[in-house]
Specification:
675 residues, alpha+beta, 7-stranded antiparallel β-sheet, 45% helix
């Protein structure tokens, strides 16, 4: 008999409120453990303070001891306050951990977002029969919770309690495969023999990249011996070829269909066995560089999710084998029979033409490319230094005698702008040449590249964050750059997350963006609640970047007189106007939008970025409140997913509390899979 469907109203007063829960404190004996750890640190510091003057034959300074004593006093006082602020609570559907004296942090994790958990005991914890329990999520280390200072019995009981919760939430993976596939991939498979050529060239290129300086230096020496260089190069090639053969010979892969694991064995001196559960594989990439294209081979990369997951990289296999791996792996994950042939239906295809790529290249990534050019400049200086080329006198002469007038600086700025635009245009055309996205069955296939072709099959279920950026110029010509974050195994919860988990779609118009969004989420964003940050966001940015840095510039100019007073006044005025404009734009363009199923954050001053996440894919919710925030009733909200974080600062604390309760409730009652 089917269960009757219900869709009753839900009211905020019926949702459990985070601030009203009864927290549990840590065992009082844990304060002894904390003190012992601090004592050990202080003893080590004291030994160093005594030993360093003796070893250097210097006089003892009473001020060093007094300063150290003062610091130790602060540390032990802070330890006592810190212990009192640590508290936790296990609820029916989630757990909350709060800590912090000056910076208060509360982390909420629903049980259905916990990947695994572990109980740990240190040396001092064993003495006092204490333990810590750590909960791992796919959101990475910053969204994990470690509760220290529990009794060993309580830690084991809580571990058993949460483990039972997780077991009830997990679903078994079904696998029904055709016999030919089982027979083929149950046995160890090797890479293509032609793949040795790919591996060899890859190693040679890596050697050139790492040791280019050492290869160039002999060319500038008077005693340059061509025969000697040729012999050394030949020896390097022979050793590289031997290593390539060993890697090829001792690299195998297969599937363990009884456990639904992908297994790789590799290594001769150091043998490694890699086992990756199929339900953790969130993306499969089929790549081709220039050598792959010549030999008609493919590189297979499997991106996984979770803090203990491993990345799989098969360098060179035949096209048919690569497609078979991709197809039946997706079938296993989607619980579909592999021997059932499905017709691939093209629902939507997006192609980026050459002219659109030109427009995209000329209107994107200005600041990113500028940073790259600056890094390249300093890297070039390091190369010159390694080649024993003394560039310092010329550089110093340019700084002292160069023309830094307004017209000269304007010329330098225009030169940099042309360099940025040219670099953007070339890299965009080469990287995204013949870019297209294609929906086949329930996956999104993305392919692009001129010199190196990359083909990615992405499952919409794996998408964690849907992001797009658009500046003023792109808005006028209806262009935006889409960035899709998937679950990553190397998530450090910042924009610098694992590049393999990101899917970039350049030059999409509004209609294409809406179609891709609909393909991934199969729904649209409806009525939204809009939240603005406090005006102090603008005040703080202007005070630091405007007034504080201007004071530093003034001090440097006053003592060093780098430019004449007239030019300094012009530069300082222009700088303050720019900082004011940028700070105001960053405040004005910052919004938090909340709907029934989505959270959307908009930010930026030139490239306006919009990040969207589905509420049921939230891994953890964190609230940060500095000690000076409390008086102003402000806090920062941080929401973690398996693909990254979104953060909204200077938010009203009362609104945050209500929002956290609502989001936690929606995540905990949701029956949807987050990946």
């Amino acid at each position: 008999m089917k269960k009757a469907f219900s869709n009753n109203n839900v009211f905020l007063e019926n949702i459990p409120q985070k601030e009203n829960v009864n927290y549990s404190t840590l065992e009082k004996k844990y304060l002894n453990v904390m003190v012992l750890n601090r004592v050990i640190w202080c003893v080590i510091t004291l030994i160093a303070i005594i030993a360093i003057p003796i070893l250097r034959d210097e006089n003892f300074s009473i001020y060093i001891y007094l300063s150290s004593l003062f610091i130790w006093l602060i540390i032990f006082t802070f330890t006592g306050f810190s212990f009192k602020k640590k508290k936790y609570v296990f609820r029916e559907h989630d757990l909350i951990y709060s800590s912090g004296v000056i910076f208060t942090k509360s982390i909420l994790i629903p049980y259905n977002r916990i990947q695994h958990l572990a109980v740990h005991q240190g040396v001092f914890s064993r003495i006092y029969n204490l333990a810590s329990i750590q909960f791992y999520t796919a959101g990475g280390s910053s969204s994990d919770i470690s509760i220290k200072g529990l009794s060993k019995e309580d830690a084991d009981r809580w571990k058993e309690f949460v483990s039972e919760k997780i077991k009830k939430l997990k679903q078994e993976i079904l696998s029904k495969l055709s016999q030919p596939i089982i027979d083929k991939f149950s046995n160890p498979q090797r890479q293509s023999k032609l793949g040795m050529v790919v591996i060899f060239f890859e190693k040679v290129i890596n050697i050139i990249r790492k040791y280019l300086v050492f290869l160039i230096i002999p060319l500038f020496n008077d005693g340059f011996d061509l025969v000697y260089i040729g012999l050394v190069t030949s020896l390097i090639f022979v050793i590289t070829a031997v290593i390539t053969y060993i890697e090829f010979k001792y690299f195998t892969f297969k599937f363990d269909f009884s456990k639904n694991d992908f297994i790789i064995k590799k290594g001769f001196f150091k043998k490694t066995k890699l086992s990756v559960p199929l339900n953790k594989i969130q993306q499969i990439n089929l790549n081709q560089n220039f050598v792959h294209k010549i030999l008609n081979l493919y590189e297979v990369q499997m991106e996984t999710a979770g803090s203990d997951s491993k990345e799989v990289n098969i360098k060179a296999i035949e096209k048919n084998t690569a497609i078979e791996i991709k197809d039946f792996t997706d079938s296993l994950k989607e619980k579909v029979k592999i021997n059932k042939v499905e017709e691939k239906v093209e629902n939507h295809k997006l192609e980026i033409d050459f002219f659109t790529l030109i427009k995209t290249g000329l209107t994107s990534r200005y600041f990113e490319t500028l940073g790259f050019i600056i890094a390249l400049f300093f890297g070039l200086l390091e190369y010159l230094d390694a080649l024993s080329i003394n560039y310092i006198p010329s550089f110093s002469s340019f700084i002292k005698n160069g023309d830094f007038g307004f017209i000269a600086v304007l010329f330098y700025v225009i030169l940099i702008i042309f360099g940025v635009l040219g670099s953007n245009l070339i890299t965009t055309l080469v990287k995204y040449y013949k870019f297209f996205t294609l929906k086949t069955n329930n996956n999104l296939t993305i392919s692009y590249g001129l010199l190196s072709t990359k083909t990615t099959m992405m499952s919409p279920n794996k998408v964690q964050i849907f992001s797009y950026t658009q500046n003023w110029l792109q808005k006028k010509i209806d262009l935006c750059n889409i960035l899709i974050f998937q679950a990553s195994s190397e998530m450090n919860m910042s924009e610098k997350s694992n590049e393999g988990s990101k899917i970039r779609i350049p030059g999409a118009n509004k209609n294409d963006r809406d179609k891709i969004f609909d393909l991934i989420y199969k729904s649209s964003i409806k009525e939204e609640l809009i939240v603005k940050p406090n005006i102090r966001k603008f005040v703080l940015n202007f005070s630091f970047f405007g007034l504080f840095l201007s004071a530093i510039f003034f001090t440097i100019q006053y003592y060093l007189s780098l430019v004449d007073s007239y030019n300094y006044i012009i530069f300082q005025t222009v700088y303050l106007i720019l900082v004011t404009f940028i700070s105001w734009r960053m405040y004005k363009n910052n919004f938090l939008f909340i709907s029934d199923n989505f959270i959307r954050i908009q930010s930026g001053f030139w490239d306006i970025s919009t990040k969207i996440i589905e509420i049921h894919k939230i891994q953890s919710i964190k609230v940060y409140q500095d000690i000076w925030y409390k008086r102003l009733n402000l806090a920062d909200l941080n929401i973690s997913t398996a693909g990254g974080e979104i953060r909204f600062n200077f938010m009203n604390d009362n609104i945050i509390k209500k929002l956290v309760d609502t989001l936690a409730y929606k995540v905990e009652v949701s029956k949807k899979n987050w990946m």
